[in-house]
Amino acid sequence: MRINKFLAENGIASRRHADTMISAGRIKINGVIASLGANVEEGDEVLLDDQPIVVTEKKEEYYLMNKPKGVVCTVSDDRGRKTVMDLLPENVGRVFPVGRLDYATEGLLILTNDGDLAYRLTHPMTEIPKTYMARIEGTLTEKDLNPIRSGVELDGVLTKKCKAHIVETNKAYTKVHITITEGRNRQVRRMFEAIGRNVEFLKRISIGQLKLSGLDRGQIRPLSAEEIAYLKGI
Questions:
Q1: CATH class of 3-52
Q2: What is the pLDDT of residues 189-233, one digit of tens each?
Q3: What amino acid positions are annotated as catalytic residues?
Q4: Are domains 62-125+212-232 and 130-207 of this chain identical in fold?
């Protein structure tokens, strides 16, 4: 089994984050620092930061969290900031966040120990629609959103076409619902920056058919069987 899949299946991290941990030299197999693409065989000892990873019978868990701002979407943080793991109840097993919401962004976040599902949900080819509520400083018109809808240049590459519409506006701010199918770093904020607008507040309100409703900031709930089946069917 590939080492990144081994780490994901044991609830250490998603495959992508596992690759980062491997590249940083934090993973060892039988005392040797693991390389990307290394395999784990039955009976091998795998260490994370020189601590053995205990392989237990896997029970797949799936949760939805309303992530508050001021919390990072990582299992641990080298700067000592609060992570989403600090918000989990004691009865939740070893899970990890699927994808990222930046430090200042709040809203819907999936956590699981299902590495295969996490990999599919975060793969660029999947293109799952993710909808955000963005509060923009000042007044905007629907015409102002046309460049956003068509695609703006970020790091020399155009963003994909997306949906955006105004849900509230006044002299102080404009609320916009925007649906994207990519996952670039700070993408929504940077898209508005590209048209000279500042995002004052950003909240993810849906991922595909999963909606953020009935959860206060920082709360978590298990996904229903229907929600899990939907995600696995994407």
A1: alpha beta
A2: 999 999 999 999 999 999 999 999 889 999 999 999 999 999 999
A3: 102
A4: yes
